[in-house]
Amino acid sequence: MSSKPGTIYSAYHTSQWATKTKVNAIVAMLPLWQDGLKTVAAMWQREWHTTGKLPRWIDTKPLGGGLSQRQWDSVSRQYRGMLVSWMELAENRFRGIVRDSTLDEPLKIELFRIDLKHAWYEPGDDEAHWLARRIMKRVRHVMRLPDPAHCRTMSLDGKIAVIEQPHTATRFRYWARISTLEKDRPVRIPLNTDPRMEEHLANGTETLANHLQLQVTGNGKLVPHLLTTRPETNPREDGDVLGLDWGMCSLFATSEGRVHGLKLYAWLKKRDEELVNLTKALQASGIKPSRSKRYRNLNRRIRNYVANETNRVLNLIADEQVRELVVEDLDFRSPRLGKDMNRLVSRAGRNAVNQKLKALKEREGITITKVNPAYTSQTCPSCGCVDKRNRTKQSVFHCVCCGRTGQADIIASRNILARRSRKDGWRRISKTQVREQLAQEHSQRRHRHGNKCQAGTPTTSTATAHTHPAPAGRIGGQENR
Ligand SMILES: [Zn+2]
């Protein structure tokens, strides 16, 4: 799908009542579609690697392979969409690596510029371009490119799937006329509709897009999604600005002192035990976890729970009083949960939060501001003291310097809010530089007030420009936050 800037697409799940013969005619396209995706993936990637950018369109004319030219166009657009979504996530990874590196400032600025344009493979012999390619290699080691071989969704645009309204009264809301592998023999399938979608169409907030997504389930069932478009909502001008922390004890804490989702970690802790025991049992009997239905079901249950809680809580927080949310580049890992669980929650949580924040921006007009999270959990909002010992317990903050105490996640969310007034939210400076800046401000303050800080001056390391940058192994992590 080619997305226009300022336009929001929504997908609505619908049901279909096609006969077995019609379903089979459509499902028969899937293997060819997947092969097609693999073919165009190679073409898109070649184009991307050699020119450094993604054109709007590539020529698929001589391809054949059982698909019509119009079907090839849809396949090609679908892979481009997958690649664009991947790039948006890669941009964050890349920025994090550059930010936490020991490169000198001008080089960092140049790399941030390249990252913002997604021009990592832009041809160039200078140091920045050479580094950009090396850092991208690192990013792609962690984040694999979208793999079309396992894609079971066919994204059909209006040229090969026309959505029509029935002329006569019927119990179906729409017909989709779909081109299949047999030339000039389209299949017409009756579609039901989604009540929420009809509501949005009726009040004019959304328009039906001439586009159909067809997902083929593992047992050969067909799951259609209808798409709508709507213009992006204008940013809100009135309301509060809230800092938000995704904490260790609560799912979210806000700078005005509310905590939400306290039950989540208790629930996850129980599931974590189940997960560890199940993995052990499977290993003992020599079964690969991914091949166990019980394991997959438990995984799905955890993912869904995290996603539902995230949506529920963010809906509560982002009520009509809020105009802006200040958030960190997030990470959900907790030292209290096992390795597998952390990986699962981290991925599910990050996806759910990113999706929800995007929706809040596009649909509700809430501004989302991201800031550098370094040391936000260890800094005292009263005196500015940064010390690991301020947070020896997960849930309690206790300043070793001035004695201030508080709920740790709420303190962190206040620090996140405060970081909004720093240039770029300090997103473009490293952890070390954040630490130095905070330590310097703290000591100036103590000097002015003549306070005694029992903790003494925190040791700082100096950030110097190394000739050999080490972007490797410095990705994410909140152990130092
Ligand atoms: Zn303090």
Could you please describe the fold and organization of this structure?
The structure is a single chain. This protein has 481 residues and is α+β, with helices and mostly antiparallel strands. Among the domains are: 7-17 and 155-231, no CATH class; 31-146, no CATH class; 240-371. It has eleven helices and 14 strands. It has helices at 20-27, 30-51, 69-99, 105-116, 127-142, 195-202, 263-284, 293-317, 339-364, 408-419, 431-449, and strands at residues 7-13, 153-157, 161-164, 174-178, 187-191, 207-216, 222-231, 240-245, 252-254, 259-260, 322-328, 367-371, 396-398, 405-407. The chain has a five-stranded mixed β-sheet. Strands 1-7-6-2 form a four-stranded antiparallel β-sheet. A hairpin with a 4-residue loop joins strand 9 (252-254) and strand 10 (259-260). Helix 2 (30-51) packs across helix 3 (69-99), helix 4 packs across helix 5 and helix 7 (263-284) packs antiparallel against helix 8 (293-317). The radius of gyration is 26 Å and the shape is globular. The protein starts with 6 loop residues before the first strand and ends in a 32-residue tail after the last helix. Mean pLDDT is 84; it is low at 455-480.
